[in-house]
Amino acid sequence: MTGLSREKALEVFTDCKRAYQLTFGTEAGKTVLADLAKFCRAGESAAVPGDHDRTWALIGRREVYLSIRDYLDLTPEQLVDKFTRPAPGAISQ
Predict the structure, then answer these.
(1) Which residue, among 90, 79, 68, 63, has the nearest Cα to 14 in the 3D structure?
(2) Which pLDDT tens digit goes with each residue over 57-77?
(3) 67 closest CA partner among 42, 46, 89
(4) Is 88:6 a contact under the CB 8 Å cutoff?
(5) Cβ–Cβ < 8 Å for 79, 66
(6) Model-level pTM?
(7) How far apart are CA 62 and CA 36, in angstroms?
(8) Mean predicted confidence (pLDDT) in 28-34
(9) What is the pLDDT of residue 2?
(10) Is there a contact between 36 and 65 (Cβ–Cβ < 8 Å)?
(11) Residue 3: what pLDDT?
(12) Is residue 86 classed as helix, strand or coil in its secondary structure?
């Protein structure tokens, strides 16, 4: 989301958060989210000893689930901060 003003980014993330809430706020959405939590190993390690490829695949699944949770749990302001700033330790240019 480079190039957007904070105000515009806030608008975009507010709209996106609303879409996630509408999708996962229903009983059916909650059922899907619970199923995704299991499939994505939300509450456990993604590491598979001796199998790097499987580990990376499971890490990817977990990242997707955690991103969904971010949109459901964080405020729009927190989403803007998280997704528009370099990660700690990242090299910014």
Answers:
(1) 79
(2) 999 999 999 999 999 999 999
(3) 42
(4) no
(5) no
(6) 0.83
(7) 9
(8) 97
(9) 60
(10) yes
(11) 77
(12) coil
Q: Reduced to 3 states, what is the DSSP secondary structure of residue 57?
A: helix
8 A C-beta contact, residue 74 and residue 4: no
The SS3 of residue 59 is helix
CA 13 – CA 74 distance, rounded (Å): 10
* Main-chain dihedrals φ then ψ at residue 43, nearest 5 degrees: -105, 15
pLDDT band at 1 (very low <50, low <70, confident <90, very high): low
Q: Token match 């689930």: residue?
A: 65
Q: Of 83, 76, 82, 63, nearest to 18 (Cα)?
A: 76
- Which stretches does DSSP call E strand in the chain? none
Among residues 84, 41, 87, 81, the alpha carbon closest in space to that of 64 is found at 41
